Amino acid sequence: MLETQVRRPAPTTSSQATPTKAATPAVKPAAALPAYVLAELQRNAAKIKGMAGRPNLMAIFLNEWIEKHTRERLMNQTVKANLGDQGAVIPGWADGASNGIAGTLLGPAAAQDITSGVTRRLTETRHALGQVGLGNPTGAYQARDTLGSAATSHDVAILKGILGAIAAKDRHAVAAAYAKQNGSKTLSATLGELIRDANQRGPLMALLPPPMNEETLTLDTFLEQLSVGLVYSNQTAEEMNADTVDERRGGNPAAVLKHFGFKAGPLILGRWGFQMRTFTPIPGKAKWAHPIVSFRGTEGVMYDPLGNDAAKAAKAKGGSIGEQAQARQKGIEGTVDTIIGDLSPKQVGWYHVQPNEDLILANLQRLKGKAISTGHSLGGAIAQLVPALHPEYFGSVVTFQAANIDKAEVAKMRQHNAGQADPVLARHYRVEGDIVPTAGQQALDGQITYFDRVSRDKGTQEPFGNSALENIASGHVTPMLSTYIRGQKNLSEDLQVIADQGLRDEATLSAKPGEKVQDVKTVFAGNYSTAQDPRIQAENKRLTLANNVGLYPGTDLFEATIYANIAYNTLLSHVENLAADKTIKTLAEFKKRVNELMAGSAPLPLDPDDVALSKVLKIDHYETDYAARPMSTGYGIPIYPKKATPIDTYFRQGVRIPSSVEQQVRDQLAVIWTSWRGQ
Questions:
Q1: Rounded to whole angstroms, how far apart are CA atoms 271 and 414?
Q2: Which of 114, 211, 239, 384 has the CB geometry, 3.0–4.6 Å to 235, for a possible disulfide?
Q3: Is residue 188 packed enough to be buried (19+ CB in 10 Å), middle (13-18) or exposed (0-12)?
Q4: Nearest one of 440, 393, 385, 391 to 417, comparing CA atoms
Q5: How far apart are the first and last CA of the chain?
Q6: Is the distance from CB of 363 to CB of 356 less than 8 angstroms?
Q7: Cα 112 to Cα 388, 454, 658, distances in angstroms
Q8: What is the pLDDT averaged over residues 614-622?
C-alpha cells in the first residue's frame, strides 16, 4: 500500500510496510512536536477561537482543512501482504493467485478493504494516465483517501488542536453544520474513514459530540447484554434471573437484570434452530417501560451436523458425559444456524422466521406495550425481519453485528412508518472488519454506528492494533458498547453497573494456547444514516454460493443438514400443533396427548413448511445407485440406475421417528409448552 502527498494524483511508487497489527504510536504531546508544527497548530487553533459562536464558519474551516490535508494511499498489496504475519500460511507461489481469486470473488477494491481489515467501502477503483500499460489499458488502480498516516502524522496533532479549540458548547452545532455542508455525512464518519489508526483517532473522537446521548447509550448497552449474551443461553427463566456468573463472558446477569428492573422470560424454542426470549419490565422498578424481544444468533459458524466433532472435542478436554452431550447439541445447533440460517438461499434468517411465524406471533400477542426488537448476528437479521412483517408490535429495533434483510421487507416497514407520529426506527451497531454485516440487501431505516475493536497483550504499553482475521473472528463477538464504556470517564450509575457486571470481551478473560490474555478496547469510528450505509455489499456473492451448494464437490451441505435434523423437526412440528391447540388446557394434558402421538408406529407426515424448504434447497429425490448392477449401453460406458433418496421416501410415506429423537423431544416438553403458552 503506497501513499502520495496530494489528493488523488497519479500514484507514486514509494512503499509502506504493513504490520501484523495495524498500529501507529499515539499523537505526540504538544511539547514533543517540532517548532513549525506547533506554530501551525497554534495558528489554526487561534483561527477557530476567533470564530467562536459561529458554527457554520468553523465547519467550513474544518472541511477545507481536511480536504487540503487528505492524501491518496495506493492499495496495491497482495492478500498475503495485507494479512501481515497471518498471511504466512499462504505459500509464496500462491501469493499472486490468492490476490486474483480475492479480486474475482469480491472485486479488486473490496478485496483490498476486507483483507486489510475493513468492511466499509474505503478503497475505490481510480484511473490515471501514469497507470496505463499493456496489461492495464484503462489506467485503473486501487486507492483510498487517508489522513494522519506515517507520512502525515503531524497533521493529526494539528487537527487535534483545531478540534480542541472548539468550545464544548459549540461542538454539536459545528458537527451539525459540517454534516449539512457534506450531504449529511457526519464529521465522525469522515474521521473514521480517513484516520484508520485507532490510537490516532481516539483522542480526536473524544473532542466530538459523543456517538449517542447517554440515555440511548445506556439503553443500548443494556440491550447488548441480552442480545450478545443472555439470549444464547438455554437456561430456564428461573436459572437466568438468579445466575450470578456468566462462565463464558464473566458477567453477572442477575445483577444487571435486577438493577435495570427486568425479568427474563422462558426460553422460546422453535423449529430449525429458532430461539428467542422476552424480557419484561418489572412495574415500579424498570428503567424503561417497553418489553424487549431478543432473537438468538448463530451458535458459532460450523459444519458438524451430528455434533460428533464437538462431542469429541469436549471428551478430549476431559468433559463429563453430560458436558459431551451439551457440546454435541451446540454442534448441531451451530450447524443448523450456519447452513439453514446464514447460508439460506433466501434472505438471511428467513428459514428461522417463516416456519416459526405462528410461534413468534403467539408470543408477541402476549406483550404489554410495544416492544424493542434486538439481536446479534443472524439474530440481528431476525430482529429486523420480524418487525418488518409485524410492525404493529414494535416501537424500535436495535441490532449488533447484524446481517441485513431484503429491500422488500425494508419497504414494508417504510410503508408502515409513512404518516406515523412514532415511526419504528433502528439503531445498528457494527465493528469494522466484521464480515457478517456485508450480507443482506439493506438495513431497516435508522442510524448505523461503527467501532474499531483493537487489542494488545495485557499489561503492556504497546500501541493497540488489530488485523483482518482478528476483526473477522473477535470483532464479530465482542460486546462493543460494554467495552466502549469501560474506556470512558465519569460513567453514570447505570453505566457503571454494566461496566462492573456486564459482558466482557472473551480475549480479556482467557487465551488460546500460544496466545496471551489481551487488553481490548473499542474506538468510535463514525455515525451514518442508513441511507448512506458505507458497508461493502456482498449479498449477491452469498446468494450465489447458497444457490449453488449442490454443485460443489463433496457432501451436499443442505442435504446433510436436512437429513440429520428432519426427524426432530418433523416430530417437533406435530408436537407444536398440540401445544398451540387451545382445547388443551394444561401441561399434563399436553404431555398425555404427546405420548399418544408417539405411541403410534406410523411415520409422521412432513410439515408443509419442510416440504417447501426441501424444494428451495433443491434436495434431490433421486440419485445414481452405484451399488446396483450397471446397464450396458453398447458404447462401453455403463449406465447406473437411479434410486429414491430419503426425501422422496419422506414425501411419499412420511418420516419415521427414532426413539432417541422421541426422548429428546420428551425432555423439551415443558419448554415447548411455555414457548407457546407463556409462563
A1: 29
A2: 239
A3: buried
A4: 391
A5: 59
A6: no
A7: 34, 20, 50
A8: 91
pTM for the full predicted model: 0.93
Distance CA 560, CA 304 (A): 10
Q: Are β-strands 518-529 and 446-457 bridged in parallel, bridged antiparallel, or unpaired? A: antiparallel
What is the residue type of 30?
Answer: A
pLDDT of residue 54: 96
395, HSE (Cβ side, Cα atoms, 13 Å): 11
Residue bearing the bigger pLDDT, 555 or 617: 617
What does the alpha-carbon distance between residue 527 and residue 185 come to, in Å, rounded to a whole number?
Answer: 8
Q: Whose CA is closest to 204, among 165, 152, 146, 176? A: 165
Which amino acid is residue 134, in one-letter code? L
DSSP secondary structure string for all residues of 76-88: ---HHHHTGGGGG
Q: How confident is the model at residue 150 (pLDDT cuts 50, 70, 90)?
A: low
Residue 2: what are its φ and ψ, rounded to 5°? Answer: -115, 165
Question: What are residue 660's phi and psi, to 5 degrees?
Answer: -65, -35
Q: Distance (Å, rounded) from C-alpha 200 to C-alpha 190?
A: 14
Q: Contact, 276 vs 293, CB < 8 A?
A: yes
Residue tagged 453430560 (cell numbers): 322
* Residue 490: burial class (beta carbons within 10 Å; 0-12, 13-18, 19+): exposed
Amino acid type, 602:
A
For the cut 80, the answer to whether the pLDDT of residue 16 exceeds it is no
